[in-house]
Structure formats: structure tokens, C-alpha cells
Amino acid sequence: MERAAADDATADPAARFAVVIEVYADVVCPFTHVGLRRLVAARRELGRDDAFRIRAWPLELVNGAPLASELVVEEVGELHRLVAPELFAGLDARAFPTTSLPALALAASAYRQDMRTGESVSLALRDALFERGEDISDPGVLAALADAHGVAAPGPDAAELVLAEWAEGQTRGVIGSPHFFVSGRDFFCPALDITRVDGHLRISADVEGFAEFIASCFA
Predict the structure, then answer these.
(1) Long-range contacts of residues 10-18, Cβ cutoff 8 Å, at least 24 apart
(2) Which of 38, 44, 65, 169 lies at a C-alpha separation of 20 to 30 Å from 29?
(3) pLDDT of 68-109, one tens digit each?
(4) Does domain 18-218 have CATH number 2.40.50.1070?
């Protein structure tokens, strides 16, 4: 089992956690929302106290343009219909963020405070977008989330934290959102099997792949 390495982005002693499960992801990626929710549920069911270090993989920088709301709405519709009917209750295409960078900066700043706060803020941002239909590029929405978690507003260097995480992900071979790293292994989007057939999106649960991933996380 991999011991957590020291993380200069958090004040928590890394040795507090048996395992730190890392993931590079964008906060507007619906596939990540499913994977993280499944991971949180598995941790709770197993009575574990491991931590999730959710790092920035800003798709608008990777792709050279922000994600189109139409694409995300299509993905969310298939996920809700076929894989996760309990999720995506409130996505509002009219409030879809024009950029994910401020939200990623808030999450990165929260991890500077401590590991659990960073994790909580990262998950709360996704809940705000996908379950409550809030625009997480809106400064007021971000300020309310920061205040609810006792996090100071991101400083002027927060954007640099996001860029540094993106650069680090590139050196580690990240191929997309979400890409997990744990126990010396890596898994790209382990909860889902995603294809396009004749232009139509097809999504199903990857039961075997996710079981293998969970075994690596919590063995």
C-alpha cells in the first residue's frame, strides 16, 4: 500500500492518511462527478479514512476553448438515464460556467489550507454545478462556497497553482478527465465505458474496471 507523500499544497501531515488517491480532473467534467461520488461511497462503506487529492486538469486549456454547454448537457443526459439516475438533478445549461478556472483556483487554494478542506471544496463545487444548477464561475457563488468551508478567497497566485497542477499532470502522462493515480497505478475514468457510435454517445458503467480500481485504492 502506497504511503502518502508529502504535499506542499496542504498543511495536513501526509502521514495522517494511509493512502492519498490522486486525480487530475476538471470541475465541469460530469464523468469526474460520477467517479468521485462512487469513490466517496466506497470509502464510506468500507469505513476508510483515506484522502482524495483532486488536482486541476483544465479542459479549456487542454482543448484551447471552454467546454460547450451542449456537450456537457448531452453527457449528463446519458449519465443520468443509463448510469447514475441519482445524480445530476439540477444541472442548468443556462447557468453553465463560461470558465472553470476560478473554481479550480478556489479548490487549489483550499488544499493549501488542509487536505480535507480541499477535498470538501472540490466536491462541493461539483455538487453546486451538477446538483443545484449554480454557475461556479460566478464570483458570488464561489465566495459563498469559500465562506461555507472557512476558506479565504483565492490570492493572486491561485491561478499559478492551477497551471502548476496542469503542468504536473502533463509530466505524469494524464490523458484526460478524470485520471486517477493510486498505489503505483493509474486509471483513466475507471467508473465508465464511453464510446461514440455513428456520432451518438454511448455510456455504460464499467463494473469490472471500477472494481479493480477500488481494490487498488482500498486493498
Answers:
(1) 10/53, 10/111, 10/112, 10/113, 10/114, 10/115, 10/118, 11/112, 11/113, 11/114, 12/51, 12/114, 12/115, 12/116, 14/115, 16/51, 16/115, 17/49, 17/50, 17/51, 17/115, 18/48, 18/49, 18/50
(2) 44
(3) 999 999 999 999 999 999 999 999 999 999 999 999 999 999
(4) no
